[in-house]
Specification:
Blueprint (H helix, E strand, L loop, with lengths): L1 H34 L2 H8 L4 H4 L11 H7 L11 H10 L15 H8 L2 E2 L2 E2 L1 H10 L15 H8 L2 H9 L14 H8 L2 H41 L2 H43 L1
Antiparallel strand pairs: 1-2
């Protein structure tokens, strides 16, 4: 019994130590964000495995470190990093990019699309979305709680820069939420006519640009394919094969000419002999 009690106490102490370490790690992470100390922040993330541990912190409403980073980019009180440093930290935290907040079902990309991101007074949603996608964010991941995608969040909130960036990266505008509506239909239901018009233009422009990119890519691939075939046709080995074929064809033509030349006189004189004999 004494052994069991001792083991239980050991486990409790270890749990408390882990919790304290978690609080210390998270405190260092928050302090580095607030103080614009990028070096300290990177030190906090890399060697200690902070990116795995901070996701358990209670004070962030279920958010992992990447989600917290995204949602504080509009808040200089809690995140004083410049855009470049924020984007660098997104890359450092890419292991969390598709994790889901169990409380609201969102991913980091959904937070960026929903809130729109501003740093230094400038709209930077596009840069944040591009960086998240480059680090493996699932563009069409569906929130199991409300059935929405990142594109639906951006459209509903009227963030046309986010809409454009998401579609340019390959988000599917035809997906439907639990209500059976697409992102554009969701925007129409939730925005003023002027805001909806801007979002609709963003949809149309982004899809047109994506279509142009696809057509250009196809044209380039066809050009490269044809160029490759033409180059092949003029390499030495192929030229030799062509010459051999030409020689063979030429020889066949000469053989045919010779046969015809010998056949025609026989045909003419043979016919005359036959005619004479008939007479």
């Amino acid at each position: 019994m004494r052994f069991i009690n001792k083991a239980a106490k050991t486990i409790t102490n270890a749990t408390n130590q882990a919790a304290n370490q978690l609080d210390n790690d998270w405190g260092m992470f928050k302090k580095a964000l607030e103080s614009n100390n990028n070096n300290t922040l990177i030190e906090a993330i890399n060697p200690t495995g902070l990116k795995d541990k901070v996701s358990e912190s209670k004070e962030r409403k279920g958010q992992n470190a990447l989600m917290y980073l995204i949602t504080t980019m509009n808040d200089t009180e809690h995140n004083n990093l410049n855009l470049e440093n924020n984007l660098e930290i997104i890359g450092k935290l890419k292991g969390q990019v598709n994790e889901v907040n169990e409380k609201d079902g969102k991913t980091a990309l959904m937070y960026a699309a929903d809130m729109g991101v501003v740093t230094g007074g400038n709209e930077t949603t596009t840069e944040v979305i591009n960086t998240l996608v480059q680090n493996g964010a699932d563009l069409n991941q569906v929130n199991k709680k409300d059935g929405m995608t990142a594109l639906m969040y951006a459209a509903k909130a009227g963030h046309y820069d986010g809409v454009r960036a998401l579609i340019a990266n390959g988000a599917d505008p035809e997906l439907k939420g639990k209500d059976g509506k697409t992102a554009l239909e969701t925007a129409k239901d939730n925005l003023s006519p002027d805001d909806f018009k801007r979002v609709k233009i963003a949809f149309e422009d982004a899809q047109a640009e994506l279509g142009a990119q696809i057509r250009a890519d196809r044209a380039n691939r066809m050009k490269n394919f044809l160029s490759g075939n033409i180059k092949d046709a003029f390499n030495s080995e192929t030229r030799n094969k062509l010459r051999e074929k030409q020689k063979a064809i030429g020889q066949n033509i000469r053989d045919v000419d010779s046969t015809v030349q010998s056949f025609i006189p026989n045909l003419i004189y043979g016919n005359k002999k036959n005619t004479n004999n008939t007479r």
